[in-house]
Write a structure and sequence with these properties.
It contains 9 helices and 8 strands. It is an alpha/beta fold and 233 residues long. The structure holds cytidine-5'-diphosphate.
């Protein structure tokens, strides 16, 4: 166990800006950014590549046990490796987004990735983003943030990102896909998307990433700043 190193948990629905905010916040603090969605996405990619049905709990669990998923810091944010292959781009493909919440609902998958996520955060000095970080993965996090934005704004952001990557998507389809994922994530039985009771809600509607990061740094100082972090992770 490390002492005196902060861990910050950022949760929220699809497209609320978690990854961009977490990445910049980690950079500002000199912390490690751990994008837990990337782990679920990498596993989903492996499930699809093996032609396993995302709803088949047993087969998906087998894939989870066999797959070697790693995340490493890169020059443009984290890199994701699946069995040694760089899948950083591939895990953002719409096909993966369409199936990831089905894979993420299985208790076996969550248990497996819970262990991995806690190992990654064990040294502290981390900004971890996901859906259940403040509630399940790091319930002792020093600061918990729950990011929100209207579904319409989240769909607009995601549409812009996808179009910039060359995907021909319509606003309506992206909105429907985001809503479907939100429902699956919020309604699953194990570790659903939910704000921890001690999380600070931050609405990102109409705010850029810098503004949101400044707001979070403000919340960090109200819990005592970096010196105020708990002595044990
Ligand atoms: O970036 P985006 O908001 O599209 O989602 P993500 O963070 O990449 O997460 C993709 C999916 O993984 C989510 O929709 C959840 O189904 C699942 N996930 C989860 O169940 N628990 C987490 N801690 C992180 C992601």
């Amino acid at each position: 166990m490390q002492t005196g190193k902060c861990s910050i948990a950022i949760d929220g629905p699809a497209g609320a800006g978690k990854s961009s905010v977490a990445r910049l916040l980690a950079k500002r603090l000199g912390f490690l950014h751990i994008d837990t969605g990337a782990l679920y996405r990498a596993l989903t990619l492996e499930v699809l590549r093996n032609s396993v049905k995302p709803t088949d709990a047993q087969e998906v669990a087998k894939i989870a046990e066999q797959a070697n998923i790693e995340i490493t810091p890169g020059s443009e944010g984290i890199r994701v490796l699946l069995n040694g292959e760089d899948v950083t781009k591939a895990i953002r493909e719409p096909m993966v987004s369409e199936n990831v919440s089905l894979v993420a609902q299985h208790p076996e998958v969550r248990e497996y990735l819970l262990v991995l996520q806690r190992q990654l955060a064990a040294d502290g000095g981390t900004v971890m983003d996901g859906r259940d970080i403040g509630t399940v993965v790091l319930p002792e996090a020093d600061l918990k943030i729950f990011l929100t934005a209207s579904a319409e704004e989240r769909a607009r952001r995601r549409m812009k990102e996808l179009r910039a990557q060359g995907y021909k998507v319509t606003y309506k389809d992206v909105l429907l896909s985001i809503r479907a994922r939100d429902n699956l994530d919020a309604e699953r039985l194990v570790a659903p998307l939910r704000a921890a009771t001690d999380a600070v809600p931050v609405d990102t509607t109409g705010k850029d990433v810098d503004t949101v990061v400044e707001e979070i740094l403000g919340h960090l100082s109200t819990v005592g700043g970096l010196d105020g972090c708990s002595t044990e992770q």
